[in-house]
Structure formats: structure tokens, C-alpha cells
Amino acid sequence: MINNDAQLLADEARYCSFGDTVHYVDPPKIFARGDGSYLYDSDNTPFLDLQMWYSAVNFGYCNERLNQVMKRQLDVLPQVASQYLHPTKIELAKAIAVDAEKKFGHAGRVHFNVGGSQSIEDSLKLVRNASQGKSLMFAFEGGYHGRTLGASSITSSYRYRRRYGHFGERAQFLPFPYPFRRPKGMTVEEYGEHCVQEFARLFETEYNGVWDPKAGQAEYAAFYVEPIQGTGGYVIPPRNFFSGLKKVLDQYGILLVVDEIQMGFYRTGKLWSIEHFDVQPDILVFGKALTNGLNPLAGLWAREELINPTLFPPGSTHSTFASNPLGTAVGLEVMRMTAEQDYESMIMAKGEHFLEGLRDLQKRHPEIGDVDGLGLALRAEICQEDGFTPNRELLDRMVHIGLAGELDWKGQKMGLVLDVGGYYKNVITLAPSLHISREEIDQALVLLDQLLTRAKAV
After folding, report:
1. CA distance linking residue 129 with residue 135, whole number of Å
2. Core-most of 180, 300, 319, 431, by most CB within 10 Å?
3. Based on the domain organization, do 162 and 204 belong to the same domain?
4. Tens of pLDDT, residues 368-387
5. Whole-angstrom Cα distance, residue 402 to residue 428?
């Protein structure tokens, strides 16, 4: 580490809030630049990034096409008061809404905000409005929807809420279908059906606590779901689960709110990950990769019946920087870029190649208990030698070694950037650039093999 890095770390320790800080290693890593699938430190050591800012940089660091749009917008209309309109806001909203109507069969509208958590807050307003003020929601164990007050209330980790008391919204957290840890003797499909039946059981009688059969009303307004859990460990549910769940929700008048903040914009090979499950959401929340991480812009799409101007009039919610021109210009270019080529086929092929490599690693390392993936959202669950008992300590060592930048690639020093997820913090959640090459995937597999071998030897 050069002296400048040491001074920066000293200043960070003295002047920066630690409220939004996660230091995976000590000393914390500082990166100086990025390019494509790689980050570089101050010594110009390359680090192959397999998490891409929690899937916000889906299209690679310094993506020339998207960067140029941002630069052009700076010279044309970089900012404008939100009571006025600008072209790319309207064009981006139309692109998302027209696509949603085609896929989901419902007319709808798009509402923008500055981040995923804020758009979750906006969705809670829509839900409360539609349900005459109900503040109880269903959500999943392992689910993550953000850390604003409302979003924290429907995020299952109590440590995000403990110091701040209870908020307006409350959630009942239900088990998410977790195929690797399903009951013995069940096929994955049987397990999916079982999970739906367990949810439906809550409505059997009034004494199950969520349904009044005489009034025909549920106490809960909506079910917030990530189709594939992000922070929860990139858990991919049985393909029949969400269609069964939606039937129950429709039967009892409960809205389905789909959080695509981490899995949207082709992470799984489709624009929205919910498309893999043949389900039509009532509200869909998006963010992160909408601007490839260049601008804090997020939003939601909702059915017309939930968001039309009569029900959601001007002033219902507001942010000064929502739908800012820099963000909407880049977001519109993302929509255009992904429409110009077959991203689905490209990403599914790359994902299968990566998954095959992970399965090969699994054969050589019994500590890899499970590998799975959908598109380029992939997981490798690190366990004890029994291949099942979680092994957080081993994964922690892997993260440290990867960020040390001392791996060997054909005689060159390299590093590897990993993200940690899962209920037991033992899952490598892999979210490489969607533009990653097959050669870079092969490089990643070699480095992962080397990393795991070194970590086990410590």
C-alpha cells in the first residue's frame, strides 16, 4: 500500500461515518479505477470483479456507450427542476411501461425515485392506498428490500431495525423455498408445492390469524418478494413456486410486489427475473443496473388501477433528484442497448458455461456444498467437508486472500472480488459483468480454484 492509501484510510477512520460501511478486510481495500470486468488498486494490480457493485454495474466498468450518453447529457441538460418535464423521463417511462404491458398483460405507469429503498417506500404508499391503509405485509426470511424505515420493516434482518424501534409497516416473515436445504425425500417440484400449501394454510380458518372469512378480508395488504434472493444468497426457488403463490394471493386479494432491484436488467437472462416464473406482478420495483451504477435512479411500475392520477395524484411522493436527466438518459440508453441484441441467449449461454465450471470445481472441492444459477446470477455455498454444514470461516479467508491481490495468473499478480451472502454468510454470490467473456469466466474459475485451495491450507 502506498503512502497516499495509508493517509486516506486514516482520514476515513477519523472523518467518515461508519453507518454505511462494510469493511470485509483489514485494512480496507481502496480501488483507483475500473475497466470492463476489472478493478485496479493504486499499484495497478488487476482484480477480477465477480460482484459488480452488488449487480449495479451489469454492463461493465467504464462502458463506453453508456459513459458517452452521460457525457453528452452533461452538455445538453444536466439538471432541471422536477416540476418541469424533459424528454428522456417520458421516453424511459414509456419503454418500461410498454414492455411490462406486453409481458404482464396490464396497462400501467412508471414512477421514478433516487434509489431502490426509496422506491420500495413509494410502493408501500401505493399498497396502503389500495388497501385502505393496511400496514401489515408478508415478506420472506432472507429477504432484503433496503434500509430506509419502511424498507427495513419488511427486511427480515432484525439487526437493521433493533436500534430504531418499530415503524408504520410490519411484516410476517415466511420461509423462502431453499432447494439445497429442503426436507429429505422431496423432489424440488414437490418442495415448491409444499411451500405453497404451507402458505395457503394460513387462510384455512379465522384462527390461523390472517383471514376473516365472514368479512372476506385479509389482514395483510401485500407480499413483498425477491424472485431470486439477493443478500439471502442468490437462492433460486422451484419453478412452480411463484405461480402457486400468486394463485393464493389473488384468491384473498393480496397484492404481489416484486423487488427486481438486484436481479433486474438481465442479471438472470431476462429483463426481470420474475419472467422466468410465469407470474404477473401488481407492482414491480427496479433500480441499480438501470443506469449501470452511473447515477442513483430507481423506480417502480404499477398496474393502472393502483397508480392512475386519481388514486396517486401530484404530491403523493416527491424527491428533488427523482427522474433527473442524467439518470433517465442513461436508463433509456440501457433499454435501447439491451433491445438491440439477444441478451437473453447471450447471458444464458455464459451462465451455463460458468455453472458447468462451478460444478467441476465442486467435484474437486467437497467444501462446495451447492452450486446453482440462473443466467449470470450464480451461487456457490461453502461448507464443511460434509458438503452441507455452513462454513463461514472458510469463505471469510477466501475473501481476504482474494482482496490481497496475490493470486497468480500466468505469472502476473491478480486479485478476485467476491461478495458474501446467505443466511449463514457462507455463500459466494456471483454477479459478474453481463459482458464478461468466456475467457474471463475461465480465468475466474482458475482463480476460484486457487483461492479455495489456499484458503483451505491456512
Report:
1. 10
2. 300
3. yes
4. 999 999 999 999 999 999 99
5. 12
Inter-CA distances, 189 with 177, 182, 194, 242, 262, Å? 11, 11, 9, 12, 25
What the block records as the C-alpha cell of 269 is: 437472462
Q: Do residue 306 and residue 185 come from a single domain? A: yes
Report the predicted TM-score, pTM, of the whole model to 2 decimal places.
0.97
Residue range 223-245, pLDDT digits in tens: 999 999 999 999 999 999 999 99
Residue range(s) defining the domain that contains residue 214: 67-340
Nearest CA-CA partner of 92 in 258, 297, 275, 257: 297
